[in-house]
Amino acid sequence: MARLSWWAAVGALVVGGAAGAAEPGSAQVHVRGDVVSLQGGALQLRTRSGDLVALQLPENAKVALVSKGDPKLLRSGAFVGTAAVPEPDGRLRALEVHVFPSSMRGTGEGHHPWDLKPGSTMTNATVAEVGPGGAGSQGTGSSMTNATVSKVGESGGARELSLQYPGGEKKVLVPEGTPVLQVEPGNRSSLVPGAHVFAVASRRPDGTLVAERLNVGKDGVVPPM
User: Fold this and answer.
1) Terminal-residue alpha carbon distance, the chain
2) How many CB atoms lie within 10 A of CB 50?
3) How many Cβ atoms sit within 10 Å of the Cβ of residue 90?
4) How far is CA 137 from the centre of its chain?
5) Model-level pTM?
6) Higher per-residue pLDDT: 80 or 175
7) Do 98 and 81 touch, CB atoms closer than 8 A?
8) Which element (helix H / strand E) includes 86?
9) pLDDT digit string (tens) for 121-166?
10) Which stretch is the leader sequence (predicted)?
11) Which of 44, 137, 156, 200 pairs with 173 at a CA distance of 20 to 30 A?
């Protein structure tokens, strides 16, 4: 995770409790909540469990905006990211899908653990094919897949994305009604009180959390990472 480019990491940011480790053994922490205040480099968030978390916001912290997108964007050649849960048949069932600009294509490709739910993963990849989705089931764990769509198909509104990355491929079922969102570059001016945020921070030895990357919901969107 530490070696991913910022855009790849933003693509991977795709809503849980307070703060939790990004991966087992990682020094990174994920914070999901709403902005309470930003004063200079001091950012305060109220987590979804109601706790207050203080973050230091350095000048080089990266900010991205997340807004509602159109399912029609899930087409061949698109570069996407999706949080998902495993299906008994080996596929992943999407909880949401993020669509990224062309400038993000191919960054941070791979498959990584994630903390959206127990056993979840995050995958950066390229969508190689999209076919009929079928009924699918209701898996329990979760994953995040970022990829480029190469072919798309539909079945009763459901789609199946074949997401390819160097050395691997994942099949992701996208049921009808699954949220589709777009990601774009942002800045700290969007960190206003009440803004919905997903933050990736590093914990210093003294316990201080230093923000590295933040996804901020646009037009009331809650980043579903």
Assistant:
1) 15
2) 9
3) 8
4) 22
5) 0.77
6) 175
7) yes
8) strand 78-86
9) 676 677 778 777 765 444 445 666 666 655 555 555 788 989 888 8
10) 1-21
11) 200
The residue count for the chain: 225
Q: DSSP assignment of 15-80, as one string?
A: --SSEEESSTT-SEEEEEEEEEEEETTEEEEEETTS-EEEEE--TT-EEEEEEE--GGG--TTEEE
Which of 95, 177, 97 minimizes the C-alpha distance to 142? 95
The percentage of residues in the chain with a pLDDT greater than 70, rounded to a whole number, is 72
6-64+184-217 CATH fold: OB fold (Dihydrolipoamide Acetyltransferase, E2P) (2.40.50)
Residue 220 in tokens? 């009331």
Scan for tokens 């909880």, then name that residue. Answer: 95
Spatial contact of 41 and 144, defined as CB atoms under 8 Å apart: no
Domains of the chain, by residue range, sit at 6-64+184-217, 67-181
